[in-house]
DNA sequence: TGTTCTTAGTCCAAGTCCTC
DNA sequence: GAGGACTTGGACTAAGAACA
């Protein structure tokens, strides 16, 4: 980012920009909270991502561990391929539970069948045969159910994180980067914390005109970022938005914290509901009220409306909905 | 993890519709 | 069915950079 910024500056490209009041008063509570909370937020995020990554890996490991009940048969079956052992396991356990003699052969299905045929030879009465059938049939069913319940190897598609263009740092951040490099050139042993303190002192000592230079640099970097960001959005397909948002939702769940979704600027704007249309129309009446009070009052008014009074908003909504459907169709066709 | 300040994003509060 | 989008603006908070 700094290189990009440096390029913009050294190429002498200047964009006419609005002056910004840098001496705007800042809420002291914000400063106090920021001072205490900013350090380490980036590492924390990185740390989380690491945890997330390891968590996904861990999930794949326990699957083979969930087979303790068939240990003996597994050991006996040549463990060259897992697929074949699984198949054999199912059959050996199904028939091998009762016929413990099958253990001696330990070759799998064929050997167990042989055991079965040997057992059938000494049959004398029909009753005995029936009893045996009944006894044999019961465990078969149970084991079959177990086999069905066994975890199937689920493909775990890993959603790649989209590389989002990085936002430029604030004028202060740009100044600090420059200051840090200068300080490092003068004193290679200087620590970041020390350089930051010195930089902050120097920053506060800067005149308004000097700060304005940094502000202009920021505006230039920001302008470039906005162009890059727009190009980046234009290069994305709806599927990429879908995948990225899936990944972000997953991240939200893991993190237990809301992660904003990626919005497609090319996608058609969703229709406003009748209530939202009403809310927009009456907002001017509540300019003096607080946001929360305004919402409550608007909801109260909406609920007090008669069905015939709600009709105009509902009609507007239907029109907007038709617009949305038409635009959505066009949008889909564009990427079909 | 340490330091700094600014900017941009999120939250609140309501009800309804839409998407996943 | 859960949760996001939509509206509003003030209050609050996270992210942005440097790197050992």
From TrEMBL:
Keyword Nucleus tagged: yes
Keyword vocabulary terms for this entry: DNA-binding, Nucleus
One CC-aspect GO term: nucleus
SMART domains for this protein: HMG
Keyword Nucleus: yes
UniProt-listed GO biological process terms: nucleosome assembly
Source organism: Diversispora epigaea
SUPFAM superfamilies given in the database record: HMG-box (SSF47095)
Lineage: Eukaryota, Fungi, Fungi incertae sedis, Mucoromycota, Glomeromycotina
Name the record gives this protein: HMG box domain-containing protein
Feature: DNA-binding region: 165-233, 268-332
GO MF term list: DNA binding; structural constituent of chromatin
Domain HMG box, first and last residues per copy: 165-233, 268-332
InterPro entries: H1/H5, HMG_box_dom, HMG_box_dom_sf, HMGB
Pfam name, any one: HMG_box
